[in-house]
Amino acid sequence: MNPTLPTTLQEAIQYFADAQRCQDLLSAMRWPQGPVCPNCRSHEHGYVKSRAIYQCKLCRKQYSAKVGTIFEDSPIKLDKWFCALWMLTNAKNGVSSYEVARSLGVTQKTAWFMMHRIRLALQHGSIDRKLMGDVEVDETYIGGKARNMHSDKRAKLMRNEGSFRKAVVVGMLERKGEVRTAVLRTAEPHQKSS
Ligand SMILES: [Zn+2]
Fold it and tell me: Where are the domains of the chain?
């Protein structure tokens, strides 16, 4: 087994304090086959390490791994996102937004927002926001209406959540310093031509 995989919250905080590690994890979760330009779908890219920005060699557009994921549109750094993700996927008896807030040093409101997005990702088996459809609609579901949901749909969401949890754990395994990208994504991305 890999000794670097965090098993306690303290270890997780240290583990994710490495900004480049977080970037690599995000990139691997986002693009199991390597970064893809959102504009022209090219795999050819350069990387500006200081800004964690990819530049497409074909169309010259710059893009980041955050765009289009649950982590975008927020000033919250990746280390906090991944710690919250770690807490949610490792807590045996659930975790409250107060606990997350205290552990990460953020406000309870911020913790709630993060947990909300992470739960969406767990339910949909992906960090890609597009796969979640209308996020606003899903908020009513998150708000506690799961028991009213048709049992088939609920069962499907539960299954997705289970497999994604596993995928996240696999994604956090490292081998010889390389992030393993094999089984990171359980939901097949829909190839929408936009
Ligand atoms: Zn491009």
Answer: 9-31+66-179
